[in-house]
Request: fold
Amino acid sequence: MVLYTALPPEQVFPPQADDTFSDYFWADFKGQLVQVAPGQEGRAVLVRIASGNAQDYLDPSLQPGCEVMLSELKRR
Reply:
């Protein structure tokens, strides 16, 4: 379905109260920009990596679903 409108997406698709992405945040981890979701006991789960280098996506420590300590992250 294609929606042609001059309205901004925020007005067409208003945020919902149960928006699961609201807890995610961007941070630096091992010199890479990653999006993480806070977990339990001072940990976080990597959601995705934002990099232009294809080799970064092959690093097992940067794969989605990996758990990292919040202390290892530098929040942006």
Remarks:
- Strands lie at 25-29, 32-38, 43-50, 67-69, 74-75.
